Amino acid sequence: MDTLLKVMNINKSFGGVKALSDISFEIYKGEKVSLVGENGSGKSTIIKIISGILAPDSGSITIGSVTKKVFTPKESIKAGVQVIYQDFSLYPNLTVCENIANGYFLSNKKFFVSYKKMQEIAKESLDKVKLNIPLKAIANSLTTAQRQMVAISKCLLENAKIIIMDEATTALTQKEIKNLINIIEGLQSSGISVIFVSHKIEEIKAVSDRC
Ligand code: ADP
Ligand code: MG
Hints:
4-stranded antiparallel β-sheet, alpha/beta, globular, 4-stranded parallel β-sheet, binds magnesium ion, binds adenosine-5'-diphosphate
């Protein structure tokens, strides 16, 4: 199996608190893996190291074919890592269309944008997560689950190879969780790996191949 991500012997302390102690694991292409542990066990910290937000004290990370001790956020994104945080990182007062397309235009260094092109991009991207909402809807007016789907569709536009969801189901209903699980299965069948961070055992069993 192709290894997409390899975390090797990572250590990280915050002052006197040892958050990560010699952490190693691998994620393969198209795998759904849960990262499990009680509150404070270091799940968010390892995600921040993979996505380049924090630097480890020691150890190394391989994303695709690149091995480094410290990735910058830009390098991590370029290598295909996308993180969906609990707040989904959307602009609350912008439309769905603007939220989805702005990342695309920025990362492709296009500073003059056509609204028609934005709409095409947003529509195509929403279709991939089977979300049928008006492109002109303001992000703030959507349900939590809809905002999450918008966030996932944004990741797909950035050519994500690994999508990491940190405590993704906290604010979802049972039905919305089922839908999220379907979407995760769809991502997997298109070769994307998903790291699902959770401490709810039923979801972990439903979502992941391995934990
Ligand atoms: P989890 O996501 O598994 O709940 P975290 O990665 O958030 O755990 O936290 C791991 C440990 O590191 C905890 O003891 C937490 O208090 C500590 N920690 C996390 N981030 C910081 C920080 N920026 N400054 C100081 N301590 C931190
Ligand atoms: Mg956390």
